[in-house]
């Protein structure tokens, strides 16, 4: 029988909840809460809550170029006051969010030290920058010198930057990227003294953060580690280039060096009725009068159309994040168009408008102040052009043809609605709308407002229905277009040869294959099918080499005929066949055809059925299993398609964190990643605790024999850097015991490329050139990828070792095979990374 909690007891708990929450907060962030209390107490005692500090208090509590060195206490005191009630409220929210989180990571003492250090250094850097910026930016430097600042924003940003040093690699990079992108954006576009001071404090926090954790600061920072992360960074850069001018347009007091871009891209001038009357009284300024009347009636919809290019860039940035080729091409074209338009408008600003008046948009006597705004869109174009290889994902065939038809159809429907509806409410326009006037005005409903400033609007709405129709047509059209674009980015990318992949999958599941055969279904492979229709060979072609993936798939009795048929196929195509990661059976057949071979990997296999981790040699595994049980960590089977979103996100974080500390990209070919885990046939085993925190993840590929799954092959292995330390031992041991209970025959721990269990046994004094190269390559890549360490790690499971070979026709083909292998394993390696690897290979001692 369930015990019913009395109502009075529930009420008591409800009353005590705020007190308990307060006590927990005091324990976790005492410095932050003390600051908030002092912040409001000082504001109340000095009566500055409503309007901020005034003279003479203002001199002592505000930082400015003129306050130093006479009022030096303001370096610290400025953080304890704010400019009015909005400043006190926003400062409190920032302290409770950013400050409390930073204090939890740093600890109270280090948080206090970081806050004091970054507050003072941020103020000194801002005042110093204000003093010298006048030589380079003219008007901006004078504005900074004249400004003063009070508030806690600077030290909170500095403490957050310092606290990032205590996070895991991936989250540290993400936090710093987000924080510094925002602060740099505000400094360049808004350009207030507060923005510059916050940026200076954050820079100081970024340097002193590692010192607080007893580490040396590193000036070298790797921008991106994976294609996925590189795409996110490019998308963020494009997004920043779009958001910046909008922020400047929304801030009437923006004085940053890039604030001029609001005039070039998004600026919609607001005109009050009095100025409009004076302007329209001059008969010679009729065009300007009509444009001003139009801008006065533009409203929110007008502002949306004014920033339409930036809205489209925002949409395209989402496509860039997903690696879409269409988004890359569209963003490049749009950014190029904006750059050309910006250059033309700068020319107009400098030479004057058609009426003979010059536009005033800031000081241009400093060359840098004039050139810098143009460098931003040009830099975005260069960035997009240089990173085009990252965006290779295409939508299904016909996607954008259908999108064009839908966009055109919606334009026709909305145009008809505007003309028909405008004629119905024709008296709501001035002058009264006619069908001819509505048709003439129709193109202007779909164009950005900025393009209409030199054109006299033929119609202006006077009533609410007319205004809704007048402004809503364009907004609705572009909103629908944006939705269709975003939807196209969400469509799954088509497989390059879907029919071949489906046929190969059917053969593999019905005829069976080896432990590596599931890798033949991965993206990037081409297929040769035997004339009998029962066998196939997967390969990758590059540098004139057909590099196979594992043994032929199909009946064992047809293997010889399949290999001979593939050799004939390569001869007809003029390519060099190379059988890679094949077993002794395939190696024996190819050697009979005059092929040479060398061992390239060592596969480890566990026989299931009577496996029990008993005895001294399995002590580490039993320890891992026992420690996991005591720590509340258990193994859980799932797939990437059925796992909860929280688990999927953690898997992505763990994967990218693992790659983040490398100086080389993630490898492919026979090493799967997140994309290969999306296959529903691939099982995942995750180490997860009671709080649903994922500590490690492994993926397992099915091995088919005689139409049934007989075993599983280990592929993906990653663990959280600060999670359960024995996660891999625990996961593999748990997988072996679990799959044994399910009745499977064996478990392959896969092969370790460029690693052999007996590297020193039976080796020649002068090994063949390719053997020597692979040995040097394995040694060079060991600090990065750890293949030999991985093979040594698998030895604790007491597996059976199976050598894997590479068979090639003759030594003359080795250079091309080496290039093909490197491109297969590292398809996205950069020039710098390739040179670094070459130096390691040449300079690595034997």
Automatic annotation (TrEMBL):
Q: Where in the cell is it found?
A: Cell membrane
Q: How does it sit in the membrane?
A: Multi-pass membrane protein
Per its UniProt record, what InterPro entries does this chain match? Acyl_CoA_acyltransferase (IPR016181), LPG_synthase_C (IPR024320), PG_lysyltransferase (IPR051211), Rhomboid-like_sf (IPR035952)
Domain of life assignment: Bacteria
Looking at the record, the residues that make up the Phosphatidylglycerol lysyltransferase C-terminal domain are 505-808
Q: Is Transmembrane helix tagged as a keyword? A: yes
Span-the-membrane segments of this chain are 31-51, 71-99, 111-137, 149-167, 174-190, 196-213, 233-255, 296-316, 328-347, 367-391, 403-425
Q: Which UniProt keywords apply?
A: Cell membrane, Membrane, Transmembrane, Transmembrane helix
Q: What is this protein called?
A: DUF2156 domain-containing protein
Q: Which organism is it from?
A: Arthrobacter gallicola
């Amino acid at each position: 029988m369930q015990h019913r909690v009395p109502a009075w007891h529930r009420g008591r708990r409800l009353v005590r909840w705020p007190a308990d929450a307060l006590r927990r907060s005091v324990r976790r962030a005492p410095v932050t809460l003390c600051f908030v209390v002092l912040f409001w107490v000082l504001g109340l005692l000095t009566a500055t809550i409503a309007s901020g500090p005034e003279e003479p208090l203002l001199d002592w509590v505000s930082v400015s170029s003129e306050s130093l060195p006479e009022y030096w206490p303001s370096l610290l005191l400025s953080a304890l006051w704010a400019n009015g009630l909005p400043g006190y409220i926003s400062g409190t929210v920032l302290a409770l969010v950013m400050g409390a989180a930073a204090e939890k990571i740093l600890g109270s003492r280090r948080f206090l030290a970081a806050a004091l250090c970054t507050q003072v250094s941020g103020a000194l850097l801002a005042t110093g920058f204000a003093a010298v910026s006048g030589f380079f930016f003219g008007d901006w430097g004078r504005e900074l010198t004249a400004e003063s600042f009070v508030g806690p924003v600077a030290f909170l940003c500095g403490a957050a930057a310092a606290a990032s040093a205590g996070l895991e690699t991936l989250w540290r990079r993400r936090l710093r990227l987000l924080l510094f992108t925002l602060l740099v954006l505000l400094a360049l576009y808004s350009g207030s003294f507060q923005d510059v001071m916050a940026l200076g404090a954050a820079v100081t926090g970024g340097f002193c953060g590692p010192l607080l954790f007893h580490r040396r600061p590193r000036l070298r920072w790797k921008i991106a580690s994976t294609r996925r992360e590189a795409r996110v960074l490019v998308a963020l850069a494009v997004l920043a280039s779009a958001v910046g001018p909008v922020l400047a347009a929304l801030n009437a007091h923006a004085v940053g060096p890039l604030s001029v871009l609001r005039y070039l891209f998004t600026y919609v001038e607001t005109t009050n009725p009095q100025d409009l009357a004076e302007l329209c009284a001059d008969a010679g300024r009729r065009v300007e009068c009509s444009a001003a009347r139009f801008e006065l009636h533009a409203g929110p919809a007008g502002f949306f159309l004014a920033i339409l290019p930036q809205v489209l860039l925002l949409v395209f940035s989402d496509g860039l994040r997903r690696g879409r080729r269409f988004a890359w091409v569209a963003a490049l074209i749009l950014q190029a168009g904006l750059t050309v338009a910006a250059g033309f408008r700068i020319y107009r600003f400098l030479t004057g408008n058609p009426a003979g008046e010059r536009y005033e948009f800031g000081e241009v006597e400093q060359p840098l102040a004039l050139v810098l705004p143009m460098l931003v869109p040009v830099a975005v174009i260069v960035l997009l052009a240089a990173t085009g290889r990252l965006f290779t994902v295409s939508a299904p065939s016909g996607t954008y043809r259908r999108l064009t038809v839908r966009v055109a159809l919606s334009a026709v429907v909305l145009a008809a609605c505007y003309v028909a509806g405008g004629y119905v409410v024709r008296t709501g326009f001035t002058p009264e709308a006619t069908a001819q006037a509505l048709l003439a005005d129709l193109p202007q409903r779909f164009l950005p407002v900025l393009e209409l400033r030199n054109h006299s609007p033929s119609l202006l709405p006077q009533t609410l229905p007319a205004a809704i129709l007048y402004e809503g047509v364009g907004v609705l059209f572009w909103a629908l277009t944006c939705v269709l674009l975003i939807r196209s980015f969400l469509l799954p990318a088509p497989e390059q040869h879907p029919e071949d992949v489906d046929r190969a999958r059917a053969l593999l599941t019905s005829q069976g294959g080896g432990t590596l055969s599931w890798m033949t279904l991965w993206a990037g492979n081409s297929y040769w099918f035997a004339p009998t229709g029962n066998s196939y060979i997967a390969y990758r072609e590059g540098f004139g080499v057909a590099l196979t993936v594992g043994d032929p798939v199909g009946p064992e009795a047809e293997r010889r005929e399949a290999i001979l048929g593939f050799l004939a196929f390569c001869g007809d195509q003029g390519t060099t066949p190379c059988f890679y990661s094949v077993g002794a059976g395939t190696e024996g057949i190819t050697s009979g055809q005059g092929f040479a071979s060398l061992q390239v990997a060592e596969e480890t296999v566990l026989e299931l059925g009577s496996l029990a981790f008993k005895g001294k040699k399995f002590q580490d595994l039993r320890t891992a299993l026992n420690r996991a049980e005591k720590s509340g960590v258990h193994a859980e089977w799932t797939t990437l398609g059925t796992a909860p979103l929280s688990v999927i996100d953690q898997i992505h974080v763990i994967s990218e964190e693992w790659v983040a500390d490398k100086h080389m990209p993630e490898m492919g070919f026979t090493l799967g990643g997140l994309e290969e885990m999306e296959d529903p046939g691939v099982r995942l085993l995750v180490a997860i605790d009671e709080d649903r925190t994922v500590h490690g993840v492994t993926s397992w590929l099915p091995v088919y024999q005689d139409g049934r799954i007989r075993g599983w092959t280990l592929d993906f292995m990653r663990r959280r850097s600060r999670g359960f330390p024995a996660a891999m031992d625990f996961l593999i041991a748990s997988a072996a015991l679990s799959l044994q209970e399910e009745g499977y025959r064996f478990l392959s721990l896969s092969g370790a490329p460029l690693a052999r269990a007996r590297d020193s046994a039976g080796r020649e004094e002068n090994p063949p050139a390719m053997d020597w190269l692979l040995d040097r390559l394995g040694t060079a890549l060991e600090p990065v990828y750890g293949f030999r360490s991985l093979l040594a790690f698998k030895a604790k499971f007491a597996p059976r070792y199976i050598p894997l070979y590479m068979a090639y026709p003759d030594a003359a083909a080795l250079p091309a095979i080496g290039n093909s292998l490197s491109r297969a394993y590292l398809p996205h390696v950069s020039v710098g990374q390739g040179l670094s690897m070459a130096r390691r290979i040449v300079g690595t001692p034997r």
